[in-house]
Design brief:
Strand content of chain B: over 45%
Radius of gyration of chain A: 13 Å
Helix content of chain A: under 10%
Distance between the termini of chain A: 37 Å
Largest sheet of chain B: 7 strands, mixed
Structural class of chain B: mainly beta
Largest interface: A-B, 26 and 27 residues
Oligomer: heterodimer
Low-confidence stretches of chain A: none
Helix content of chain B: under 10%
Mean pLDDT of chain B: 93
Number of helices of chain B: 0
Mean pLDDT of chain A: 91
Shape of chain A: globular
Distance between the termini of chain B: 37 Å
Number of strands of chain B: 11
Strand content of chain A: over 45%
Shape of chain B: globular
Structural class of chain A: mainly beta
Order of helices and strands of chain A: EEEEEEEEEEE
Low-confidence stretches of chain B: none
Number of helices of chain A: 0
Number of strands of chain A: 11
Chain lengths: ~110, ~120
Amino acid sequence: SQQGEEDPQALSIQEGENATMNCSYKTSINNLQWYRQNSGRGLVHLILIRSNEREKHSGRLRVTLDTSKKSSSLLITASRAADTASYFCATVDNYGQNFVFGPGTRLSVLP
Amino acid sequence: SAVISQKPSRDICQRGTSLTIQCQVDSQVTMMFWYRQQPGQSLTLIATANQGSEATYESGFVIDKFPISRPNLTFSTLTVSNMSPEDSSIYLCSVSQGANMNTEAFFGQGTRLTVV
């Protein structure tokens, strides 16, 4: 079953703007991961944040994790048209066994 | 990292037939998974492919409909049996190099299946 819920479901912004996507989950986790999917193809791993971490950066990506609120956010700064894709969060439980995807956010970056 | 070759990339099949999807990894991996992604939806885990033993299926998925083979640590197949239009989806193979999911997962490019 899916425990991650993401919002917004769809987001449309202009190139150069920042995009923020949120993910909420229900049970305790070991880590939370963000993935990107272009046009229904395979998923590409973006970033992994562990339950004892609060923030991670990778290039233009910034991920936060609030375990007290059971939520995470993905911020893409200075967006580009090439960032147009679907973004999914996925949670891993404390046993490292269950990998559950959220419903995803469809991001459109307009040139 | 792991590079995954998934074949076929797409197919259009007649209802009642079966399709076997192959997943080849360029290195030995402990964990291999098969997912289904229905149009406009997120990924749903079908099963974990276990090397040398029967796959572990998630609720709602059964071996008769989705038989899986995993003869070694680099290869697996998923068969979609007795297909109906409701089986039209993207099917994705995924691997994790660790013994659990505490590291990133790698995905094949998916198989886009259309059943007519």
